[in-house]
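re the bet — no i am not wrong, look at it urself. input seq straight from the record:
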Amino acid sequence: MHERLLVVDDEPDIVKVLSKILEINGYEVSSAYSGLEALQAIKDVNPELVLLDYMMPDINGLDVLRGIKSYSDDIYVVMVTGRGSEEVAATVMKSGANDYIIKPFEKDQILTVVKDTLKIRTAEIKAKRLQEELRVLNQELENKVEERTRDLVMTQERLVHQQNLASLGEMSGGMAHEIRNPLNSISLYAQIILDELMEDDPKKEYLNKIMNDVDRINAIVTNLNLFSRRIKREKEPLPLKMPLDAVLRTLSTQFDNNGIEMRVHFEEGLPEVLASNEEMEEVFSHLLVNAMHAMPVGGSIDVSMRLITAHPHNELFPDRDEPKREYIEVAVQDTGIGISKEDLNKIFIPFFTTKTDWQGTGLGLSVVHRVVDDHGGAIDVESEPGKGTTFTLRFPVL
């Protein structure tokens, strides 16, 4: 394409001869005879270069120059002036002109100025484009470094968490065995004393409290055994709907008795995952019982299951260099009391619990986290006090 030029002068003869010279040398030339015409032509023609007369009848050349530059920095301007002083040259260049030429001028002189200015324009626009590309690349690099740093921190935290769980699991297994022996003795002696006391003996109340605490400790020990178990259960191709349906049937009476409405949304024809049916039942049971306990005056639980496509580990432990793959996503959403922001970061820590009664051992969600992780899945939780909690689990499709 030929470069587009705009010649602006209030003298028609000058416009005519300049246009002729430039057209002969291969330029596409438009013309304007006043400042207002020039500003309108700028929008219509969008020229690469403007030859602008310094003295105009309506708007002076400097104001037209400023108008052009405010419209686009990519339009270069050569100011044509009959005033050959250094002061005028300094003024026009300070106002944004890219060059100037003094009347009267030779044909070769104007052609040289036009050619050189267009060359400079091409080089400077290319340089600006490269600078912008470099800026974008630098920003992308900074974002990538920041993203990778977050990934490394999250991965490190995850590994530390897994190591802590493994160490705690080994210790818990030994503790559970040692606790059960004296606990059994306490229970037997308490039962013997209970049998020997009269029905109206006030000491029975104390012994019943002992027995209740024995049951509570026994429940904790049972969870410790579950938590410390390092034997991997056999995994097999499994439709996740099967263990989830089994848990829902088991808990249905408790839901009804506690005024909880259960709503289920399962996609049809979902593929299988490689999983242990027994461990999946444990996971879903812990989540649903927790949801029930979070609604002491009733409410509703929505359980959904669907097929999604995501990066490995999704948002939790992203690895964006790996291709996306298919996951079964299970969401358990309740309308309960919710979890505070401070507690949300602690819920997977063993023995942490917000429950005030003995039913809360603080190990359920730790077991859930371990089982999900052992299955190559991911777990996420969103909650707001007074507005309920949603646990989202993702398991890779077989």
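see?? The two ends are 58 Å apart (CA to CA). told u. also The chain is about 55% helix and 20% strand. so pay up
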